[in-house]
């Protein structure tokens, strides 16, 4: 079954924390067993019958464009190019110029093994895939009420158990008509946190495989896991 909803992948990151082990490529192009990390995201999207991807690129964009071209694994690709850094929010908003209405939005440096279609929620402006994890201090936590509406985003601190933002979203384009934004802005701070009360921001919990290659230890772990 073809998935008509396109996917936006945020692939413009600098990867400063990874710079000790990966040099001269954007973070989503960090090699995992001789293939860029993004390849594995595309493999999963192919498996889910996604047909259209918009790659939001900036830093070292040529490396990504040269590898993926305009079609990869049968998925057609458009490039939303940031000629200057727009922040995560500005990058998403710019990428939505290439999309008609709703889209899934993924971070290009995390892999969360979920069925995207189960994240669709027509009643919400944004739905976040949430991952329960134990004993961590690297992520902020997310709290939801009984109806799975997100009620707070908490700062990073040591946590025995909590829900984290898994970096996968189902996103209505119309939400940008409801809020004022600058040209350059943070999706997390200026949309999610700022508009908790006036946008419908839902969470959905998935206890599935998750990895974020943003630090050397997890980058190393991905080499093992993705074999």
Structure description:
With 227 residues, this protein is an alpha/beta fold. The protein has one domain (7-225): Spore Coat Polysaccharide Biosynthesis Protein SpsA, Chain A (Alpha-Beta Complex), CATH 3.90.550.10. Helices cover 22% and strands 33% of the residues. The chain has six helices and 14 strands.
Quick structural overview:
The chain is of the alpha/beta class. The protein contains 6 helices and 14 strands. The mean pLDDT is 92.
Shape: globular
Largest beta-sheet characterization: 8 strands, mixed
CATH class: Alpha Beta
CATH architecture: Alpha-Beta Complex
Q: What percentage of amino acids are in beta strands?
A: 25-35%
Write down the CATH topology. Answer: Spore Coat Polysaccharide Biosynthesis Protein SpsA, Chain A
How many whole angstroms does the radius of gyration measure? 17 Å
Question: Count of helical segments?
Answer: 6
In total, the number of strands is: 14
Helix and strand composition category: alpha/beta
Helix content: 10-25%
State the end-to-end CA separation. Answer: 27 Å
Unreliable residue stretches? none
- Could you give the order of strands across the largest sheet? 5-6-4-1-7-12-9-13
Mean pLDDT over the residues? 92
């Amino acid at each position: 079954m073809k998935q008509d909803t396109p996917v936006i992948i945020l692939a413009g990151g600098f990867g400063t924390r990874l710079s000790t082990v990966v040099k001269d490529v954007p973070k989503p192009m960090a090699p995992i067993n001789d293939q860029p990390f993004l390849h594995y995201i595309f493999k999963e999207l192919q498996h889910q019958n996604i047909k259209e991807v918009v790659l939001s690129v900036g830093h070292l964009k040529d490396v990504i464009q040269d590898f993926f071209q305009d079609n990869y694994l049968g998925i057609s690709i458009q490039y939303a190019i940031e000629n200057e850094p727009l922040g995560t929010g500005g990058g998403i908003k710019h990428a939505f110029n290439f999309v008609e209405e709703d889209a899934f939005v993924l971070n290009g440096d995390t892999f969360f093994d979920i069925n995207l279609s189960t994240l669709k929620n027509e009643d919400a402006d944004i739905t976040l895939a949430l991952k329960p994890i134990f004993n961590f201090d690297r992520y902020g936590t997310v709290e939801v009420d009984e109806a799975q509406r997100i009620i707070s985003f908490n700062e990073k601190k040591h946590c025995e158990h909590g829900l984290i933002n898994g970096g996968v979203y189902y996103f209505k384009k119309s939400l940008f008509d409801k809020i004022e934004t600058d040209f350059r802005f943070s999706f997390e701070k200026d949309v999610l946190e700022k508009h908790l009360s006036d946008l419908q921001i839902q969470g959905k919990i998935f206890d599935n495989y998750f990895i974020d290659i943003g630090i050397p230890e997890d980058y190393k772990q991905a080499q093992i896991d993705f074999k």
